[in-house]
């Protein structure tokens, strides 16, 4: 068990106070690819932001890798996120000033465990696995959507995090590229034993995941 | 884990941002450059002028001059045409000896006189001095253009101002005859020629032995003026003290006599600081704007950096270091430019005005001005870069990621 969420509640106060997450409890094990699906507005993204420690304004308990994250200071939370959590968004959010390789290397440089040479070797290895090795020196704005999303996956993987959060990672891609990204995500859970929690509207994907959880009106149907 | 925000990765990101926004970066650097360079040039020039005037006017003149009240008729010599003299000299001398704020004082006997050379006859005045005392009043050796100063002044010598010497057509070792109001006259050798750079002094002032002058005037041992140099020139308590003790004297002080210069110095100081601060403010505001828009443009990047584990202090550092680099570069270049412009001013010939005589503009190349300008420039940029940086650190990644 690498993640354990207990009794998570979340309210928004605008336009009026309303409950968006209602008593959510969830455990995740290593090597799983879990899909979260459900109607638009049901609270999937809101939950993912909480589980990824980006949003700490909630009630309940969130234990990741044995650490109760609600007890961490903002600074320690940032370090924790760097080490344990990878992100993939619907929009690719790469840094345009940096090359493909540099984008992938950023989280590892922040972690500061390996030296630059080792980090670059790791990044090159990931590019190879993601089949975009030839793009290493490209500025990211020259890449297609599918290529950019693969770079984002590389960036999420570089520190070999405890788990990866992906919020509609294929939401912005055509079918061919969507399939490619999904297959990569599934592959890394099975081959590298990474763990992925993904929100998606694509039925083909959530039915092909190891576990699919529906979200209805802020509650999980387990 | 890189514990401190000051690390290579953050520095690298900051540099990357700076270099991809070359135009804004260069503009910001130029802003600081101009602000700091102007500050340095202005302060060099203005303090140069102030120091020059201080030197010429205050160092060449006593801080306080004690004279007898001019319209008062002395009882001793009711029909004398000679100058009035100070009666209670001993009393005043004792007071001056005792006063804490007095650096030195010197007695003088001053008389109007007509000076004649082989070519000219001009009105002027003669300062009868006691060389050993007068040396503490005026640093004449620094002002000498030809000949010798007070230490060599003998009973039949005269030292005269450069303008007067020119008009009389005399140089060192020539003879000048003085004719006093009582009709007595004597011939003196010119032993020195001085220039204070101030027309009103160089045009009329002459120095001769007080003893010679007193003998001619028939006023043996009598003194018409006491010149005083103060330790603290701004403390003029002594003046009121002396005036209380004696009703027969009047006192001039440097402030009164040089009102225009004192005011001019103040105006120059105010001008220097206000213009410099305004320029630095403009430069600072420019950096504030540039950094603010950079933070706005980069808010997505900031959100991403935060999601991958960069903390608020990392983000502050990344943006603050950009401002710091701009500030240091701009201020550093400004040292060179400031020096160059100051140098050009310092070698620019100046047309002699009626008031001062100087060949080029006075410039005060003080190291402290350069250090001050540099520090001001860096401080301004860091201050104006801080607020946008803090704003950057407060970017909420959830809002940004959700917002697209
Ligand atoms: N900052 C906010 N302030 C107020 N309400 C919010 C805020 N963020 C989200 N909500 C509301 O919370 C609910 C859940 O939103 P969320 O984005 O989690 O849904 P979702 O399941 O991810 O939807 P989608 O499938 O469209 O991405 C929605 O009703 C949304 O309007
Ligand atoms: Mg969503």
Characterization of the model:
The complex is a heterodimer of chains A (222) and B (404). Chain A has helices at residues 44-51, 74-84, 100-111, 116-129, 145-157, 175-191, 203-208, and strands spanning 3-12, 18-28, 33-37, 59-64, 67-68, 85-88, 163-167, 196-199, 211-216, 219-221. Chain A is an alpha/beta fold and 222 residues long. In chain A, the strands form two sheets. In chain A, strands 6-7-8-3-9-10 form a six-stranded mixed sheet, sandwiched between helices. Helices cover 54% and strands 17% of the residues of chain B. In chain B, strands 2-3-8-5-7-6 form a six-stranded mixed beta barrel. In chain B, a hairpin with a 5-residue loop joins strand 6 and strand 7. Residues 72-80 of chain B have low confidence and may be disordered. Magnesium ion (MG) binds at residues 44-45, 167, 199 of chain A.
Class inferred from helices and paired strands of chain A: alpha/beta
Physical arrangement of strands within the biggest beta sheet of chain A: 6-7-8-3-9-10
Q: Going across the biggest sheet of chain B, name each strand in turn.
A: 2-3-8-5-7-6
Indicate the mean pLDDT of chain B.
Answer: 86
* Number of beta-strand segments of chain A: 10
Helix/strand/pairing category of chain B: alpha+beta
What is the tally of helical segments of chain A? Answer: 7
Distance between the ends of chain A:
17 Å
Stretches with pLDDT under 50, minimum 5 residues of chain A: none
- Which chains share the greatest interface? A-B, 32 and 28 residues
Q: Based on the coordinates given, report the CATH architecture of chain A.
A: 3-Layer(aba) Sandwich
Taken as a percent bin, the fraction of beta residues of chain B is: 15-25%
Helix coverage percent of chain B: 40-55%
H-E string of chain A: EEEHEEHEHHHEHEHEE
Radius of gyration of chain A from the CA trace? 17 Å
CATH class of chain A: Alpha Beta
């Amino acid at each position: 068990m690498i993640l354990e969420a207990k009794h998570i509640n979340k309210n928004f106060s605008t336009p009026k106070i309303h409950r968006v997450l209602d008593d959510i409890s969830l455990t995740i094990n290593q090597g799983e690819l879990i899909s979260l699906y459900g109607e638009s507005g049901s609270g999937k993204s809101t939950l993912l932001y909480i589980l990824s420690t980006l949003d700490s304004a909630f009630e309940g308990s969130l234990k990741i890798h044995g650490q109760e994250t609600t007890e961490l200071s903002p600074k320690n939370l940032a370090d924790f996120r760097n080490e344990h959590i990878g992100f993939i968004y619907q929009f690719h959010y790469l840094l345009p000033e940096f090359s493909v390789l540099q984008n992938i290397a950023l989280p590892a440089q922040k972690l500061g465990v390996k030296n630059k040479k080792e980090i670059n070797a790791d990044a090159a290895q990931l590019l190879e696995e993601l089949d975009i090795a030839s793009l290493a020196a490209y500025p990211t704005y020259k890449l297609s959507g599918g290529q950019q999303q693969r770079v984002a996956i590389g960036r999420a993987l570089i520190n070999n995090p405890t788990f990866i959060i992906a919020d509609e990672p294929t939401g912005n891609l055509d079918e061919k590229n969507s399939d490619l990204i999904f297959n990569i995500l599934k592959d890394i859970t099975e081959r590298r034993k990474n763990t992925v929690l993904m929100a998606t509207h694509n039925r083909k994907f959530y039915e092909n995941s190891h576990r699919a959880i529906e979200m209805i009106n802020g509650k999980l149907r387990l | 884990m890189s514990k401190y925000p000051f690390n290579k990765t953050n520095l690298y990101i900051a540099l990357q941002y700076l270099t991809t926004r070359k135009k804004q970066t260069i503009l910001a650097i130029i802003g600081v450059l101009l602000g700091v360079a102007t500050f340095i040039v202005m302060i060099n020039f203005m303090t140069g002028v102030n120091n020059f005037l201080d030197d010429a006017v205050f160092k060449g003149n006593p801080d306080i001059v004690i004279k007898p009240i001019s319209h008062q008729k002395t009882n001793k010599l009711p029909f004398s045409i000679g100058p009035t003299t100070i009666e209670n000299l001993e009393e005043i001398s004792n007071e001056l000896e005792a006063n804490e704020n007095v650096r030195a004082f010197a007695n003088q006997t001053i008389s109007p006189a007509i000076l004649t050379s082989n070519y000219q006859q001009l009105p002027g005045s003669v300062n009868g001095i006691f060389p050993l005392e007068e040396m503490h009043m005026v640093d004449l050796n620094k002002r000498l253009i030809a000949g010798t100063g007070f230490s060599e002044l003998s009973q039949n010598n005269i030292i005269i101002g450069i303008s007067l010497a020119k008009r009389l057509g005399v140089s060192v070792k020539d003879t000048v005859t003085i004719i006093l109001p009582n009709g007595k006259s004597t011939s003196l050798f010119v032993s020195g020629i001085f220039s204070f750079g101030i027309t009103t002094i160089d045009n009329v002032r002459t120095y001769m032995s007080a003893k010679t002058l007193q003998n001619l005037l028939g006023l043996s041992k009598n003194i018409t003026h006491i010149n005083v140099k103060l330790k603290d020139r701004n403390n003029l308590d002594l003046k009121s003290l002396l005036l209380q003790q004696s009703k027969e004297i009047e006192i001039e002080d440097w402030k009164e006599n040089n009102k225009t210069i004192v005011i001019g110095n103040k105006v120059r100081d105010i001008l220097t600081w206000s213009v410099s601060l305004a320029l630095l403010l403009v430069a600072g505001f420019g950096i504030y704007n540039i950094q603010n828009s950079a933070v706005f443009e980069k808010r997505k990047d900031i959100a991403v950096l935060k999601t991958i584990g960069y903390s608020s202090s990392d983000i502050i550092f990344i943006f603050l270091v950009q401002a710091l680099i701009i500030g240091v570069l701009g201020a550093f270049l400004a040292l060179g430019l400031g020096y160059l412009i100051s140098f050009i001013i310092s070698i620019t010939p100046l047309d002699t005005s009626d008031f001062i005589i100087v060949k080029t503009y006075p410039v005060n190349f003080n190291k402290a001005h350069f250090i001050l300008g540099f520090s001001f420039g860096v401080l301004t940029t860091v201050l104006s870069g801080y607020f946008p940086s803090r704003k950057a650190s407060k970017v909420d990644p959830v809002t940004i990621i959700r917002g697209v």
